Amino acid sequence: MLAFGQFISPAARRNSLRLDIGCVATYAGVCIEKGMGSIISGLTPDTLGEIYEYCPTITELRVAAGIFAVGFLLFTLMLKVAVPISPDEFLDKKEATVHAPEVDVPCPV
Hints:
- By secondary structure, this protein is mainly α.
- It has one domain.
- The chain has helices spanning 2-8, 10-14, 16-34, 36-39, 58-82.
- Helix 1 (2-8) runs antiparallel to helix 3.
- The longest helix has 25 residues, at 58-82.
- The model has no long low-confidence stretch (mean pLDDT 75).
């Protein structure tokens, strides 16, 4: 519920610290809801409540590493698009309050 409230509030969406808290709360909520059974499938108890010992093979570890690598790659590519977008890019030029200082830089010819 904390994460939901953080993302609904417009004031919280403008504050990066509160957004970070909302993201951590979302992750924590999913871990609490699903438990370790969704993270490590070998810890899921059977219908009698017994938990069996399980050791993943090298192929399973490679597949998991590949999935994480693709996720990190997509995250990096999305950051390259999202970070350059400034908040006042979508405002009218008259309404923008923050302007970058003009600097005269000689062009090498």
